[in-house]
Amino acid sequence: MKLRDTPSACPSLWRCLPCPAAELRLDLVLSSGQTFRWWESSPGSWTGVLGERVWTLRQDQDRLWYTVYGEEEEGCPTEAAKPDGAELDQILHDYFQLDVGLTALYRTWGVADPLFRKVANDFPGVRVLRQDPVECLLSFICTSNNHISRITAMIERLCRAFGRRLCHLDTQPIHAFPSLSALTGADAEARLRALGFGYRAKFVSGSAQAIAEGLGPKGLHRLRATPYAEARRVLCALPGVGAKIADCVCLMALDKAEAVPVDTHVWRIARQRYGVVVGSRSLSPRAHQEIGDFFRGLWGPRAGWAQAVLFCADLRKGQEPASSRGQDSRGDGSP
User: Which of 26, 153, 188, 234 has its CA 20 to 30 A from that of 65?
Assistant: First the structure.
């Protein structure tokens, strides 16, 4: 199967949602360490896996365009069996949290914080994704001591080895994110080590096992309805999950907009730009809490969203001109 044409060239295969560019910038959101399953398949087009479907997204000044690929393998649904357009619209609306008015938030944060206002002018449309909790958790376990290009390659190997094949695009197989059952086999850790996961293999398979035997996927989803502190506590009890990973999952999968993931980027921003003095010279749990509390006091109940803007700006400004990836992601050197 080949990648589909642009919206203007083949409108019957594309749908669109109203979405001003100031509310969403695909190039910033999909390449800045929130998710690792999207790639720029052609200039301005982003292809990836969402909800066990393969999508290509584009945008113009006022609309978000998308097309979804049918499954090809025998026994799989055909094009006619796909969900209707309204259901697909809702999947994207939920994933990008388009009910949250981003431009109004930018104004509020800019009034409270002149430094934010100065940076944000160059980085509009950075919003927080609402991801599947299991995929988000296991993906962020892979970010420790890592960078975006390497994390992306690791997740791709994970999906090819353990995930269900969805289709081929331009001869490349595209796979779904693995189920928990696929990652809880007796040989899962050894297979992950063979794929280059190193010490993370133990944490990925261990957390998959802990969730499968404990909360289950539904229980993990139900953490969306629990207070932030409780959700964070539950996550930190899983193998390989510390404060930073827990906050990433709380923010990007569990609807905790106040969660502020603190890694080396955010720690540096807090110290150098805001003069935050914490009681530790390392990224200890106390430092995480103090920096998070500072930004929650500054930016309010959606502090995690404001942090995502500064994180994206810091990541982009630190890159070499010829590279779109390769900078430190949200790995802080600890689980």
Answer: 153
Q: Is 326 part of a structural domain of the chain?
A: no
pLDDT score of 145 more than 90: no
The pLDDT of 266-286, averaged and rounded, is: 84
Write out the DSSP string of 69-134. EPP-STTS--GGGSPPHHHHHHHHHHHTTTTS-HHHHHHHHHHH-HHHHHHHTTSTT-------HH
Which residue type, as a one-letter code, is found at position 306?
A
pLDDT for position 264: 82
Report pLDDT digits (tens) over 82-109: 568 899 999 999 999 999 999 999 999 9
Identify which of 262, 264, 242, 247 has the alpha carbon closest to the alpha carbon of residue 327: 264
The answer to whether residue 103 sits within a structural domain is: no
Q: Which domain holds residue 47?
A: 11-97
Q: Among residues 82, 244, 256, 317, which one is catalytic?
A: 244
Pinpoint the alpha helices (H) of the chain.
26-29, 85-95, 102-112, 114-120, 133-141, 148-162, 188-194, 200-213, 216-222, 228-236, 243-253, 264-268, 285-299, 303-317
Residue 244 falls in the annotated catalytic set: yes
Looking at the domain assignment, is residue 302 inside a domain?
Answer: yes
SS3 281: coil
